[in-house]
Design a protein that fits this description.
481 residues; alpha/beta; TIM Barrel; Dna Ligase, domain 1; 3 domains; eight-stranded parallel beta sheet; binds zinc ion; binds copper (II) ion
Length: 481
């Protein structure tokens, strides 16, 4: 029987997101769903696209983003869209725009996702509503951040929360979950949550457990106490019986280079008894707010933005300090509030972690500042081009699986992450020979090569370099259990 589809891809190399070997076939889209996959030679499409040797894959899911504000107001989300990303998970590292009453002073790292103009959502529901009223370009799966909750209910953050403050946080957390938050994140490394003991987190996780939402953590430590922090994370999540994702797993600082040999074994062990996943980005430098304690572990630090000294954007911190004839710490004082790129990982660990079969891909890109870390624009094509095709650390199919099916299963994004009949039509058409990141530390705002078309919920949003003026993204809310 012949059908007419809205979109019909003919003779494409289908990589379906399961990790299965690619196959040549046709894919028909009707409305916002994929309605057929196979041999559709007797069917027609209102719009037909010839494969020409290109790969059709599920749209990439960026599981670790700070796009909370970028997704608002129908922004085209160009850094992500042009990589083939169709869904972003926001609210990571303990920070989310909601719920926070406007006018509260924004401590770092809350300022990496927005300024006081963006922190305008006193309830989680009001944030979700803003996204729904002006739909985002890409799908947005929102999480709520522990540090945001702490800032919302505590007068000072250099201590553990009292039991009445924990109760208030539980209420805010519940409101977020009821409004569709898919998860809860902590950033125990950062000053606003550093003094939160595991018991405080555990009480909140117990609330989470009742909802089926996920827990992600930027751990207390990623350098000299990396293994202790992994154990703490496994234990708290295990005690509350919630699924856990360790964010941007890395081994920071010279003393700890090579440690991924041990840490990945810890993941193998713990995964036998509880749900634990991890994500990573394909670079040896990290990025965050400018913090003196992070500078200590680094070979080199670049300033991404500085409010009082924008002339320093993109410059080397040590050079600036030398020029000002001050110590590094004094220079930091003058530059704040500011952001930085930190060179503190070994390529050997990055490769080992990226190619670990259970690692998902999360850009951790920070869409703020004049010279953002290149991961914002390059993460997904870099994994496919450099790490899969050129270095052959994994097959293209396995690389795609990490950024699609595995991510959708872990974050429980229903009917996403696969090219299969009945799934939402989030897809990317790319050239596996040409795909590559072009963004560098020097010129970070550069589109990737090799992305031909991006489809979000059945709507073509990017085609041969042109961003079409649509906002087909949906808020992916947690479906209740
Ligand atoms: Zn983080
Ligand atoms: Cu992050």
């Amino acid at each position: 029987m012949s059908e007419t589809y809205d979109l019909l891809f003919r003779n494409v190399r289908i990589i379906d997101g399961t990790g299965a070997v690619e196959r040549i076939g046709d894919v028909g889209v009707f409305g916002n769903r994929i309605s057929a996959v196979g041999n559709l030679s007797s069917s027609r499409g209102t719009r037909e696209i010839e494969g020409r040797g290109l790969v059709l894959a599920p749209g990439f899911i960026d599981v670790h983003t700070h796009d909370d504000a970028l997704a608002l107001d129908g922004n085209p989300m160009e850094p992500k869209l042009t990589q083939g990303v169709t869904t972003v998970v926001v609210g990571n590292c303990g920070i989310s725009l909601a719920p926070l009453k406007p006018g509260i002073p924004l401590l770092p790292p809350l300022n990496i996702i927005g300024g006081s103009d963006e922190y305008r959502f006193p309830t989680f529901r009001s944030y979700v509503k803003a996204l729904e009223e002006k739909p985002p370009a890409l799908n947005v799966a929102p999480m709520v951040g522990h540090s945001t909750l702490r800032v919302a209910v505590m007068d000072r953050l250099d201590r553990a929360a009292t039991s009445s403050e924990i109760t208030q946080m539980e209420e805010l957390l519940q409101e977020a979950l009821d409004s569709g938050a898919i998860g809860f994140s902590t950033g125990l490394y950062y000053p606003p949550a550093r003094e939160a003991p595991p018991e405080e987190v555990l009480t909140l996780l117990k609330r989470l457990a009742l909802s089926g939402a996920i827990y992600t953590t930027h751990m207390r430590n990623e350098d000299d106490f990396l293994e202790d922090s992994l154990r703490e994370s496994f234990d708290t999540a295990g005690a509350a019986d919630v699924p856990l994702v360790i964010s941007h797993h890395k081994c920071m600082g010279k003393n700890n280079h090579g440690l991924s040999m041990q840490t990945l074994k810890m993941f193998d062990e713990v995964r036998k008894k509880q749900l634990v996943g991890l994500d990573a980005y394909p670079y040896t430098a990290g990025s965050s707010a400018l913090l003196p304690e992070m500078v200590e572990q680094c070979e080199r630090v670049l300033i991404t933005w500085s409010e009082p000294h924008p002339e320093c954007n993109g410059r080397d911190l040590a050079e600036v300090a030398q020029e000002w004839d001050t110590t590094i710490n004094d220079a930091i004082e003058h530059l704040l509030p500011a952001g930085a790129v930190y060179f503190h990982m070994a390529e050997e660990d990055v490769q080992r972690i990226i190619s670990y079969p259970h690692t998902m891909i999360g850009s951790d890109g920070i869409p703020r500042g004049a010279r953002p870390h290149p991961r914002l624009w390059g993460t997904f094509p870099r994994v496919l081009g450099r790490y899969a095709r050129d270095l052959k650390l994994m097959s293209l199919e396995n690389a795609v699986h990490k950024m699609t099916g595995l991510a959708a299963e872990t974050f429980r994004l229903e009917d996403r992450g696969y090219v299969a009949e009945g799934k939402f039509a989030d897809m990317v058409l790319f050239d596996p020979e040409m795909i590559d990141d072009t963004a560098t530390y020097e010129t970070p705002e550069m589109r990737a090569n090799g992305i031909h078309m991006v489809v979000v919920n059945g709507t073509v949003l990017l085609e041969e370099g042109f961003i079409l003026d649509h906002s087909p993204g949906k808020v992916l809310k947690r479906t209740s259990h």
